[in-house]
Write a structure and sequence with these properties.
- Helix content is 39%, strand content 17%.
- It has 9 helices and 8 strands.
- The protein has an 8-stranded parallel sheet with strand order 1-2-3-4-5-6-7-8.
- The radius of gyration is 17 Å and the shape is globular.
- The C terminus is likely disordered.
């Protein structure tokens, strides 16, 4: 898993309990194992604060702050102020607003309130001049309508839409993130998108601890496993995996306005 260098994992959840046993060791070891940058994504105000606290302990770790659409129930009245304050408190580490978006997958969702929370955070991203890390599941139509209205900079993570939707996203200037799901047998849409996507709009991610790639599907994912997605993307594009990793890293550095002040592995 460490034969490549300069991997930028643009979507990770190292605050998750799945990493309680070895979180600090794992993050500390990454630069020597080919992972040069990690972007943590917040799911609630508290998780965003925990992500920021973790990012502050490692020079190669950054974070996004936000409220995930599955976590909109029971938000405190001042949730948006909490997210804004976190972003403003450490602009060197908070490089995006996320993970935000729409998720209609589970029964009982409140579409109207999800849209309200999503749009409030898109407005915050614009106010703070930060990109957005966007989650869309079973809600592509509504989400694209909102994105066409607000036109944020950012990335649709774990992209699973059609080629046509991918083209619309690129027209808006949005990046698309790909990870372990690209290696799955049922990943037809993601495969078709990677085959045609202009490379300057592609990012690599894990969504760890979730969505581990084949041959580790069902196990805990971590940033080193991006190698499998890079190899699959390279196969689809007729390129070398390291080329894909390098292009996607440079795309992420530009999107998140990160200066490469520390040496890459």
């Amino acid at each position: 898993m460490n034969k490549y260098r300069g991997i930028f994992d643009t979507h990770a959840h190292y605050t998750d309990a799945a990493f309680d046993a070895d979180r600090m060791q794992l993050l500390s070891d990454f630069p020597a194992q080919g992972v040069s940058h990690v972007m943590l994504c917040g799911c609630t105000p508290a998780d965003s604060a925990a992500s920021l606290a973790l990012a502050q302990q490692f020079p190669h770790v950054y974070c996004a702050v936000g409220v995930h659409p599955e976590n909109v129930d029971g938000l405190p009245a001042d949730w948006l102020a909490q997210i804004r304050d976190l972003a403003a408190s450490h602009p060197d580490k908070v490089r995006a607003v996320g993970e935000i978006g729409l998720d209609y997958h589970y029964e009982g969702y409140d579409a109207a309130f999800q849209k309200q929370v999503f749009t409030a955070q898109l407005e915050l991203a614009k106010e703070l001049e930060l990109p957005a890390i966007i989650h869309i599941r079973d809600a592509m139509g509504d989400a694209m309508e909102i994105l066409q209205k607000y036109r944020p900079k950012g990335v649709i993570h774990c992209f699973s839409g059609s080629k046509e939707t991918a083209k619309e996203a690129v027209k808006l200037g949005l990046h698309l993130g790909f990870g372990g799901t690209l290696t799955y047998k049922n990943a037809r849409r993601a495969v078709e998108t990677v085959e045609m996507l202009p490379l300057e709009y592609m990012l690599l991610e894990t969504d760890c601890p979730y969505l581990a790639p084949v041959p580790h599907r069902g196990k805990r994912n971590d940033s080193r496993m991006i190698a499998y997605a890079a190899e699959r993307a390279a196969e689809l594009r007729g390129m070398e995996p390291q080329e894909i990793i390098d292009i996607c890293r440079e795309n992420a550095l530009r999107l998140f306005h990160i200066e490469t002040m520390h040496p890459r592995s």
